[in-house]
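Hey, sorry to bother you again with one of my protein questions. I've been puzzling over a protein and I'd love to understand its fold better. Take your time with it, there's no hurry, and the full record follows here:
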Amino acid sequence: MTDNEKSQIKAEKQRIRADAAKARDRLSKQDRTLRSELACSALSVWLEEHPEQREIMCYVPFRSELDMWPLMEWAWSTGREVIVPRCHPLDRSMTLYRLQSPADLMEGAYGIREPDPAKCEELPQGHVPGIIIVPGIQFDRIGGRMGYGGGYYDRFAERAGETGKRAMWIGAAFEVQVAEQVPMQEHDLKMNGIVTESGIHLL
């Protein structure tokens, strides 16, 4: 791929990110809350059918993202483990922590609430949860995902792949963030499915 082609892809991704963010932001707070509850309910029903999945890696919602708190509350109430990442901007890596309460969070990178290392159990570098719920700005139904440009989840997926452990990667978003096809490059992380307020679509 030429430098010009790379520049074109980068510019196209920036445009898509801006448009998808606007579409998400146009949803009212009440609407986002309702849609988030529907998506989390769909996930909890699916997880009930897969009792072997005792660990769920989630993201702590930021700005107008689909809210994962209903799923985390459900997980705690059913004895499942909730795992959330802490981002390290220097090398754009993530460290995983076991979260037991919203009170165990602190403001971290980019203003996003993250696990407080003084309150949460840090997991070994090679730990790979069976279910990983991934945020993003746009998704499609064939595994495509567009993140925010930091590459954190791409790097984590590469590290996870080196362990030989398999995980199910599920993108989480509102329907307004779902496109027919997201532009992907070879290094981009592919999803095994997507959850929205309309339910779960698995590949």
